[in-house]
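tool_call: predict_structure(chain=1)
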Amino acid sequence: MRWSPIFVASVFSSLSWSVVAHPAPFTNSTVRSLHKRSIVCGIDLRTATADDCLDRHSVVNFKVVTTASRQTLTQEAVPQNAQEPPAGSSCDHVVELQVVAAAMQQSTLCGIVAALNSLQESEGVDVKRNSVLQPLANIANSVQNLFFLDSNVNGAKANYVQLAISGQPIETSRNQFFAAVHSYLESTTVASESREVAADLDSAISVILKNANTLVAGFPPPPPAGTRAQGVQILQNNLREALAAHAAQKAEQKITVVNLWNRVLLKTVRNE
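tool_result:
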């Protein structure tokens, strides 16, 4: 195996934690945490599991290693024929779905998604509720967005990302693993591939918006003023209104996945 050490801030040298020997137990709180991180417009888009990380062409594991003087985040090449995740690791979605959720919510896109789903359901199409967002799920759960990561660091990353996208400071006094999260995110492979994933997610969102506008353009005219909409007309009007709300939103109030993700990648950690 090849190892390339990535130094974690010296603040770690005074701490007494160490890497767990086996994967962290999948407790109810872990399930709730993963669920919260994966909800986009009310729909759970997380599909990748630990085994999916093994499908990477160049499988990489990032893990914390404790020495007598300090802790370091190391990058380990996992054998291509590995059948099990590395001990103490979990499969991390680098660009988290909570970033996608925040971008779509702030840009008033969730109403469009809900209206599109309602129209599909009314037509009797046998689809899952996340069919409109399936392209986003495919990108977020693709091998390009997956790396093995020490389970403790992965757990801290959820809060790190949440703080970063909301513009709050990231301080090691909040979580001793924040410095390790930062080192992981700034590593060349993770940073470059995650930027590509974020851009692909924005492109997929643009396609959803374009398709919604195309669909509305083919609708029959809405009922005359004073006439009550019925049946599918109500659903069509809901989509019209959702698109109008998005169009009326000021450009500076909207935000892309790329912009939010750059907040995460460019965030610095305070050793406090």
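agent: The chain has one domain: 3-270. Proceeding to next step.
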